[in-house]
Inosine-uridine nucleoside N-ribohydrolase
Amino acid sequence: KRKIILDCDPGHDDAVAILLAGISEKIDLLGIVSVAGNSYVENTTRNALILTEMGKINVPVFQGSAKPLIRDQIVAPDIHGESGLEGANLPLPTKKVEEKNYLEFMAEKVKENPGKITFVAVGPLTNIAKFALNYPELVSQVEELVIMGGGIEFGNVKPRAEFNIYADPEAAQIVFNAGFNLTVFPLDVTHQAKIHMNEIKEMQKFSSEIVSKMGILLEFFHQTYYDVFKIEGAPLHDPCTIAYLIKPELFEFKEYYAQVEVKGELTYGETVVDYWQFEKPNSKWALKVNREEFIKLLFEELKKY
Ligand code: BDR
Ligand code: CA
């Protein structure tokens, strides 16, 4: 079992990642940390609370960073709606957020289990950068940092920049240079991990209330992807990270040296990847996924709810 802390900004695809991590027998989900990204942190925290409550996922939820390190804040209502999780009427949570500071929680878990905790970060990297700045001695004690972010061939908020990186490029740059054992799921692979409308309709018929609600939420997400990008099929970006920890054979990888552009006028927030491998790699990048097997795994796991 992989022990993970999930850092997220739910978010429709984050929500699927939470459900997947919350049910898989291969994953021991120790806690969820929210971050501002798809919406403001009060919203992403509330969404994490209601998802774990409805899914009976018994894990603590901590509230993380409300603002990026340096840049002005951006959120993504065009994709996820104002609440960050628009499309179905979710009740307000009765579950309460933890009082403990999220960085102390993360540090404590790593100290208790050196080399045995994996951080999964599927929102802007603000919290992870703060972890690296506050506890540089613990970075090498983290088993793996798995992120969804960046793009080799294309961006999604700017021609060259992907949302999670663009929302806090300075944090991402700190994270890429902190010395983590880093695995990256860029847009190049997550845009292969699409869920199609017939599959979403199937999910809506699942007997579990939270999973059928998830199907309704994904219909909204499918529509916004069509409206904004004119593509058919909603990319399940964030669940790729969890699917990888459950079944790594679903993906193909290559190691690269990569940096984050923080000065470029046209390229601010781009992940600049050394395609020809001139430099010694600092990260492992997922490049391909078997979509059919990915959806099969997702459905098998969600059926357990
Ligand atoms: C990433 O941005 C967010 O909108 C999604 O949740 C995902 O983490 C994709 O660029
Ligand atoms: Ca996300």
User: Anything to note?
Assistant: Residues 11, 13-14, 38, 76, 79, 122-123, 148, 156, 162-164, 237-238 surround beta-D-ribofuranose (ligand 1) (CB under 6 Å). The chain has a mean pLDDT of 98. The two ends are 19 Å apart (CA to CA).
